[in-house]
TrEMBL record:
Keywords: Signal. Pfam families: Por_Secre_tail. Transmembrane segments: none annotated. This is Por secretion system C-terminal sorting domain-containing protein. NCBIfam families: ELWxxDGT_rpt, Por_Secre_tail. Residues 405-469 form the Secretion system C-terminal sorting domain. It comes from the Bacteria. It comes from Halpernia humi.
Length: 472
């Protein structure tokens, strides 16, 4: 029975693997183009990538090979413009770029032209703008002031030059919006505490660490609260949340088993009413955790890298009732996992780079009904791929409600699918052998003896099942 289970698992994995398609080998051969930070703008996907000749520049894609092109070699030659920190604002793409003359500054792209929007630290110096947030008709971001390396919050309406909000406050780490406010780690001196900013004034929310810097960081908003990591001077860097008020700011749980040690919660993501994140309890390494906002409702969902090793879950992406993320169980490398919110339902979804090597998938995004990502299958380097969205979040309901019989069969199959279905048949290597539409719910496959994967689509939902053909 164990051998059969392993075979079914392997065949299913091969079926799913066949649904991962290289969109474009941007840096031809085995070298990496390292695409990243994908964002949708003006009907296309935009990201940074290097073709090995022009450095890291701005690219765009319509989801096809021919439609995946470099927007501009803005920093000409092999040097990199290195666009990053993308955000859509005022019908433009705002981002950080470095043209080699003005340093790392604020740029825009209007669908036609890349332009320097603001050279905050004039000359070759870099203000390094980052953490762009849109609130109402204004864009906020963190950047170094003109005369020092201290970070300030800047504000612009997209037409006027950015201005500093109250230069007496220095900003550390990221920023996050909650309603009409920014939640951030700020200091008028050297002690960083939890503040909010309404676009004009900074207000202390809470002095989390009375004896030093609380250093709140890793901010994430679910729309009602902001979750973050902070150090109260006693418990180490632990899980906190705020609703923007002092009374509504508290540590949720001291996760680390060692007094004063850091659990360092990070990579927060909201899914089905709970927050999923990575944390280290001091025993099991950095693993997948979940919280409902209470101490009792905060627990490790699964020890993916069993023991004290780290699986380092990150890059969360929700689709069709499942939460996808990257993690490393040391057996399969850093690959794509899925969870339905249960321990049993948390499992390896796709080993893109088979074996212990890592595909390290990042930047999953839904675009025109397909899921795009940046990953490395072990043959062409880290490049721009897509996954057939029908294999993501495959509806358990369809699989439970639909049956094919007899199985094994001689290729003549019957089903209880009253409405008929569209089907594809794959061999165990993932090659498509047959496809078509069954209006009566029956099939006559006429295939040699063997094991096959039958994928079927009813309405807008798809599922797959193993079938065995025995002609005698």
């Amino acid at each position: 029975m164990k051998k059969i289970s392993i075979l079914i698992s392997t065949v299913s994995s091969l079926f799913i693997f066949s649904q991962v398609t290289l969109v474009k080998d941007i840096n031809p051969g085995t070298s990496n183009s390292n695409p990243g930070l994908t964002i949708e703008y003006n009907g296309s996907l935009y990201f940074k990538a290097s073709d090995g000749t022009n450095g890291t520049e701005l690219w765009k894609s319509d989801g096809t090979t021919s439609g995946t092109v470099m927007v501009s070699d803005y920093r000409s030659g092999s040097a990199s413009f290195n666009p990053q920190q993308f955000v859509v604002f005022d019908n433009k793409l705002f981002f950080q770029g470095n043209d080699g003359t003005n340093g790392a500054e604020v740029y825009t792209y209007d669908g036609t032209t890349i332009s320097l929007f603001a050279d905050l630290k004039t000359g070759s110096g870099s203000s390094v703008p980052q953490n762009f947030e849109v609130i109402g008709s204004n864009l906020y971001f963190k950047a170094q002031e003109a005369t020092s390396t201290n970070n300030k919050i800047y504000k612009t309406d997209g037409t006027a030059a950015p201005t500093v909000i109250d230069p007496t406050y220095n900003i550390a780490f990221g920023i996050e919006k909650l309603g009409t406010d920014l939640i951030l780690s700020a200091s008028p001196s050297n002690s960083y505490q939890l503040y909010k900013c309404d676009g004009t004034t900074y207000t202390l929310i809470k002095t989390i660490n009375p004896s030093g810097s609380a250093s709140p960081t890793n901010f994430y908003s679910d729309g009602n609260k902001v979750y973050f990591s902070a150090d109260d001077g006693t418990n180490g860097k632990e899980l906190w949340a705020t609703d923007g008020t002092s009374a509504g700011t508290a540590m949720i749980k001291d996760i680390s088993s060692s007094p004063g040690a850091d659990s360092s919660p990070n990579h927060f993501f909201s899914f089905n009413g709970k927050i999923y994140f990575s944390a280290n309890d001091g025993t099991n390494g950095t693993e997948l955790w979940v919280t409902d906002g209470t101490d009792a409702g905060t627990s490790m969902l699964k020890d993916i890298n069993v023991g004290s090793g780290n699986s380092n879950p990150s890059d969360f992406f929700a689709y069709n009732g499942k939460l996808y993320f990257t993690a490393n169980d040391t057996t399969n490398g850093n690959e794509l996992w899925e969870t339905d919110g249960t321990n049993a339902g948390t499992k390896l979804f796709l080993d893109i780079n088979p074996g212990s090597a890592s595909s390290s998938p990042t930047d999953l995004i839904l675009f025109n009904g397909e899921v795009f990502l940046n990953t490395n299958d072990g043959t062409v380097g880290k490049e721009f791929y897509k996954i057939d969205s029908s294999v993501l979040g495959t509806a358990d309901g369809i699989a439970k409600q639909t049956s094919f019989y007899p199985n094994p069969s001689n290729g003549k199959l019957f089903s209880n699918a009253k409405k008929g279905f569209i089907y594809q048949v794959y061999d165990v290597k993932g090659a498509l052998l047959k496809s078509g539409k069954s209006t009566a719910g029956n099939l006559n496959l006429n295939l040699p003896d063997g094991i096959y994967i039958l994928k079927y689509t009813i309405g807008e939902k798809s599922a797959a099942t193993k079938i065995v053909i025995k002609n005698k």
